[in-house]
Amino acid sequence: MSARESLGEAQARFARVATALEGPGPDEAALGTWLRAARGVSAADRMAIYSHAYFARIHGALREDFGALAAALGEAGFHDLVKLYLMAHPPHHFSLRYAGAKLPQFLASEAAEFFRARWPFAPDLAALEWALADLFDAPDSEVLERESLAAVPQERWGALRFRLGDAHRVLALDWPVGDLREAWSAERPLPTLAARPTRVLVYRRDERMFQRALPALEARALELARTGADLETLCGAIADEIGADDAVEHAVSLLDRWLSEHLLAALEVGGTD
Questions:
Q1: CB 244 within 8 A of CB 141
Q2: Are the C-beta atoms of residues 149 and 272 closer than 8 Å to each other?
Q3: CA proximity to 226, closest of 250, 196, 203, 249
Q4: What is the pLDDT of residue 77?
């Protein structure tokens, strides 16, 4: 540090060098003028220790959040992905919890064309794994109990409207990456995927994360519920697909499943709680 350089300026310069992943810059080239060698370790080698630790810590955090993606790409592929990603999107938050927020977006960008050419499902798999990581910290919501539903007179069920909780997300994907994620979680060999449009429901229940494929009809019903449609409207949409005879039974089975998965937070009857 020069006599005229403040502590803050020196710290900023150190941070620039320690977090630079694209190779030596002007600050690093002049290391010998502002960073001392010590105990036989050169200034460049001392800085390399900090640079390696910076990358290794974030790499490890991303590997935890994107475990299936890391397994699918392999050690070398995931290492290269993380390096390029951090060059494009260096962390701007003190918490590593947000380090992977833009990885799905990066994998879908032109900069990641190489990875998509070899692993075309990678953006979808990253989106699924980020949803699992992100929703783990979603705000807690009230959970609708079956007793509240059972207390509503049957003649008023058609006017029921449901409010969904915050800890869920529906993903529209081009690849069935849920199969790959499930195989990885179960420590089974990763399957070979073929492109197939699919919807995946990601949700949290009792501090645990879950995912499952979402049939098109259920996805439509869930979206109607999210936008405030009443149960009569839901049944009508279901009837359009499977016929009126089975619509009510199917709607009730969906409600039962959504209750068990803690997707529903509250209900309204005819505009009143």
A1: no
A2: no
A3: 203
A4: 97
